[in-house]
Amino acid sequence: MKHISVLVPKGDAALGTIEGPFKFFSFVNDFLTAMGKEPAFKIQLVGLSSEIQKYSGVFGVTPDATIHNIEKTDLVIIPAVNGDRDSVIEMNKEFFPWIIKQHDAGAEVASLCVGAFLLAATGILNGKNCTTHWMSAGDFRRMFPDINLMDDRIITDENGVYTSGGANSFWNLLVYLVEKYVDREMAIYTTKFFMIEIDRNSQSPFIMFTGQKGHEDDTVRKAQEFIEKRFQDRITVDQLSEMFAVGRRSFERRFKKATSNSVIEYIQRVKIEAAKKSFEVSRKNVTELMYEVGYTDTKAFRSTFKKITGLSPVEYRNKYNKSAMSA
C-alpha cells in the first residue's frame, strides 16, 4: 500500500487541489474494494502543524498529521498556492527540508498547477522539465531560470518528480499516477467515473497569449508593442533591429532574454492569437483569417497554428466557435 501525503499549505491555496487528490485516491480504494481487491493507498493530509488551515476565509482543512509525525511517505502532493509568490514560498519554507528528505529517501513528488512554485523552491526541479499554469509561465521563468518550463504540457514526469498544468488539468496527473500505481484498467475506470478526458498531454489550446512585458528592457517592449499593433503586416527581424537602432544579433539576444521567445516566435504567437480570437467569434473561413493576420502561405499558417495551439485551425474553430458547434 502506497502512502500519499497531500500537503496542507499555509496561506491561500486552491482548495480543490487538496480535496481533489484526497477524494480521487479514496475513490480508487473504494473501487478496488468493490472488486474484491486490497486498497492501494493510505492518504493523509499533512500540515506544518495540527491547526486548521482556512482558505478563502470560509473553508477549513484539518491536517491528519504533521511533517513531524511522518517519517516516510511514498508520494508527496503539493497543491496549488495563490497570492504573492515570494510570500507564499516564505510562509511554507518549513515544508522544504521534509520534502527534500522524503525525496532523497525515495519518495516521489508531484506539484499541482502553481504548486510548482513551491516544488521549484525546494531545488528538486533544478535542471529538470516541469509545467505549471500557462498564465504563471513568465513569473516562473524569472524566478527559476535553471528549470526548463514546458508551459504547453499537461504533465511532466522526471523520474518520479511530477508536475501538472493549469487549474483542473491536475486531474489528468492523478489519472496518470493511478495508471502507474495500479493499472490502465483502473485509470480508465476513474476517467469514466469522474468524466475526465484521458491521455490529454497539452494545455496549448487554452493558452491566451498576452505578451511577456514584465521586464525592464524599454527597447524590447516598444518592439513588442509595434508587433502587436502591426501583426497584419510582414515584419522582419532586420526591420525591427533597424527601426530601434540595435544590431540584429544584439536585438535578438535582448528580445529572447526579455520575453523567453525569439523575435520570430513572438511575431508568430501574436498573429496566431489574433487568428484564434477571430475563429472564436466570426464566421470567416481559414483562408480569410489567414490573410487577415498576415499569412499568405496556407501550409505555413496551418503548421504554425497547430504548433502553437495543438489543434488545426478547423479543429480550433469547431471547438470554440458557437456557430460552428451548432452547425
Number of helices: 15
Overall shape: it is globular
Rg, alpha carbons: 22 Å
SSE sequence, one letter per element = EHEEEEEHHEHEHEEEHHHHHHHHHH
Q: Structural class of the secondary elements?
A: alpha/beta
Helix content: 40-55%
What is the terminal separation in angstroms?
50 Å
By DSSP, the count of extended strands is: 11
Strand content: 5-15%
Query: Strand order of the main beta sheet, please?
Result: 5-2-1-6-7-11-10
How is the biggest beta sheet arranged? 7 strands, mixed
What are the low-pLDDT stretches, counting only 5+ consecutive residues below 50? Answer: none
SSE layout and pairings?
Blueprint (H helix, E strand, L loop, with lengths): L1 E6 L8 H19 L6 E7 L5 E3 L3 E3 L3 E2 L8 E4 L6 H7 L3 H10 L3 E4 L4 H6 L7 E2 L6 H7 L4 E2 L5 E3 L3 E4 L5 H12 L2 H11 L23 H12 L7 H7 L4 H12 L3 H19 L4 H7 L5 H12 L3 H8 L1 H5 L1
Parallel strand pairs: 1-2, 1-6, 2-5, 6-7, 7-11, 8-9
Antiparallel strand pairs: 3-4, 10-11
How would you characterize the overall build of this protein?
The chain is α/β, with parallel strands linked by helices and 327 residues long. The chain has 15 helices and eleven strands. α1 links the parallel β1 and β2. α1 runs parallel beside α6 and α11 crosses α14. The longest helix is centred in the first third of the chain and has 19 residues. The protein is globular.
